[in-house]
């Protein structure tokens, strides 16, 4: 447990000390929130769906957690390049503990960023259906962070160069985000699109966030939690296996 804590704390300190990273990482979610939230707001309201800001704010929070947690895998490539990864691998600590510590560190950073974006949403005018539901919403934030931090760590374990990681992440992350229903309702979709949407793990995270915060559910809380928990176990197991095969 000591090794897990140290690696978790390292990821957290690295994030806190990088003020530029904190500011820049919030830029894209704020752009979506302001440009789309207020730009498409009148159109969304005229269509009879209510406030677009209320609809998309949970999706923007989910997007922030997704991007932050997945791209935490980049840190592994930096550690490989500068030799820190080799030092941790030869330490008298199991690789499972190393992988778990790194994953939890990346997930914690993603949770912090999601919290910051939620605060910005509140400043912009978003209001949850019930303030007491916010702790329940954070359950979905945590699940999203763990799922995609494990995915990022697993992918970072099998790639050797930064360029390859960025290409793979863009190929995976953008479809995951745009097909999750973060920016548009999932009702009345074509059959093929509806099937793809149900395969997307972030769909259940966004649905859980939106349901907890504004009481609009596409599925159900139990289904969302069950699917995310199952996927988290699969990604953690796969990530642990891939990390165990890594060669510094």
UniProtKB/TrEMBL annotation:
Q: Which GO terms describe its molecular function?
A: ABC-type transporter activity
**All residue ranges annotated as the ABC transmembrane type-2 domain in the record:** 20-246
An annotated GO cellular component? ATP-binding cassette (ABC) transporter complex
Q: What is its main location?
A: membrane
Q: Which residues cross the membrane?
A: 20-40, 52-78, 104-126, 132-155, 167-186, 219-243
> Is Electron transport one of the keywords?
no
Localisation per UniProt entry:
Cell membrane; Membrane
Q: Keywords in UniProt for this one?
A: Cell membrane, Membrane, Transmembrane, Transmembrane helix, Transport
PROSITE patterns of this UniProt entry? ABC_TM2 (PS51012)
Pfam families in the cross-refs: ABC2_membrane
Membrane topology summary: Multi-pass membrane protein
* Family that this chain belongs to: Belongs to the ABC-2 integral membrane protein family.
Specify the protein name. Transport permease protein
State the organism of origin.
Edaphobacter paludis
């Amino acid at each position: 447990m000591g090794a897990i804590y140290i690696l978790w704390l390292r990821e957290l300190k690295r994030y806190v000390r990088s003020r530029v990273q904190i500011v820049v990482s919030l830029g894209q979610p704020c752009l979506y929130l302001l440009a789309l939230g207020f730009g498409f707001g009148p159109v969304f309201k005229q269509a009879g769906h209510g406030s677009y800001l209320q609809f998309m704010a949970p999706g923007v929070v989910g997007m922030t957690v997704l991007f932050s947690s997945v791209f935490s895998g980049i840190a592994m490539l930096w550690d490989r390049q500068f030799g820190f990864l080799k030092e941790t691998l030869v330490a008298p600590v199991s690789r499972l503990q190393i992988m778990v510590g790194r994953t939890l560190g990346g997930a914690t950073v993603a949770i912090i960023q999601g919290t910051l974006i939620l605060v910005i949403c509140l400043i912009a005018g978003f209001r949850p259906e019930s303030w007491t539901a916010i702790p329940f919403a954070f359950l979905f934030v945590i699940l999203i962070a763990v799922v995609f931090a494990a995915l990022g760590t697993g992918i970072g374990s099998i790639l050797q160069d930064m360029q390859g990681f960025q290409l793979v992440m863009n190929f995976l992350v953008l479809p995951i985000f745009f097909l999750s229903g973060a920016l548009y309702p999932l009702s009345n979709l074509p059959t093929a699109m509806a099937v793809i949407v149900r395969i997307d793990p972030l769909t259940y995270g966004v649905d859980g966030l939106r349901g907890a915060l504004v009481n609009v559910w596409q599925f159900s809380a139990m289904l969302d939690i069950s699917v995310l928990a199952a996927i988290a176990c699969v990604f953690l197991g796969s990530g642990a296996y891939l990390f165990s095969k890594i060669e510094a």
